[in-house]
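>> Question from a student workshop board

For tomorrow's exercise we were told to take the sequence and the ligand below, predict the bound structure, and bring the output to class. My setup keeps failing. Could a helper post the expected result so I can at least see what it should look like? The ligand is glycyl-adenosine-5'-phosphate.
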Amino acid sequence: MTKEQDTPVFDRIVSLAKRRGFVYQGSEIYGGLGGTWDYGPMGVRLKNNIKNLWWKKFVDDRMDMYGVDAAIIMNPRVWKAVGHVDGFTDPLCECLKCKRRFRTDHLGERAESKKCPECGGELGESRQFNMMFETHVGAVRDSSSIAYLRPETAQGIFVNFKNVVDSFHPKLPFGIAQIGKAFRNEITPRDFLFRTREFEQMEIEYFIRENEWEQYFEVWRKDMREWTKSIGLAQKNIHELEVEGADRAHYSKRTIDFEYSFPFGRKELYGLAYRTDFDLRSHSEASSVDLSYQDVESGERFVPHVIEPSFGLDRTVLAVLLEGYTEDTLGDEIRRYLKLPSYLAPVSVAVFPLLRNKSELVTRAHALHEILRKKNFVTAFDDNGNIGKRYRRQDEIGTPLCITVDFTTLEDDTVTVRDRDSGEQERVKQDELGMYIEERISRV
Ligand code: GAP
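>> Workshop helper replied:
Here is what the output should look like for this input. Compare the format with yours to find the bug.
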């Protein structure tokens, strides 16, 4: 057994994510910054593939959806209006001895015993801590210039409701979707990408008539489940949790959490909420701008209600990595690879010359790589180390197909294609390669 084999599987995945350029610690050379992570070259591709799939499925492939990309820093009155300035809080308590801070609701029984889980010291009284990051807009730094980094993308949608209605005159029901960054000054960021201070959300506000809310809640519940299937998550790992009254956000009349069986426990992956007309009504009152909707046929005017499917992108990346991480034995070696759906894999096809010091092989491999790139496959070229090592590297990235140009290629124009999951190889004619790959790989 190698040393890595003795570490918990979650640590092995975090280590692979770093080694293969998926995710690095934020500001690593300065010792990091708690709750921040940077995506490397492979992580960006994986994340973009997920975003593109989501956008295609929920925006481009539908007639009832409109996309926006709103500013991260919004007028602070937005956050006052919907109760975030006063109420976007988590309960915090501090150890009087070691000064470490904890979320009171994460302490379980220790909260009652008032003992610090780190040093055993006495915990102080629990108080509410606002999680919004503050900044100042403009040159003057006083209370009049305070603004917040948005803690949810949702409000960028609500404040553009009237703009979208005025530009497109959509019929109800319709949705507005957004993908973007959100920021929360989490008390205890933890578990890699799970709880971070800067993250991305993919959110939809789906506007409906009040009497339709139960019907559309069910529709979105199914759509969210379908989404988890489309990104390859095993359904045994997905659990729906009905969130009870006291645990629901102040704006929600019903919430279901889609939980995932993470190695550190069953935890929220996504949320589905019925936000009623809370946000549009609150913004109407605070801004004095009428955010009601007029039905063109009946002439009826009312404030629409909202179903909100909310998807955390970084938690999606984490779940996809966890789900894909596989170990098997190939030959007599333990092999680690990412069994990603081909349309999410950061690289679709890797091309190798069998030997890097044989110029004919290298030239042919470069030419083939260029042909495949022009066919819009996402490709990698690798001539570093022996073929076994190159396969291992691509396996850890999750590349579905590896192509080797070898001496037989020079004789009969065939190449070796190796399948990531089975490790099996077959010879394919070079001029049939495009079709062959197209059949084996799906794209978003
Ligand atoms: N607009 C509704 C909303 O923001 P939420 O349950 O607070 O609801 C929605 O967040 C999703 O955003 C979560 O289900 C999760 O996927 C993601 N999320 C929330 N806080 C996060 C954090 N600190 N780090 C990473 N993802 C987070």
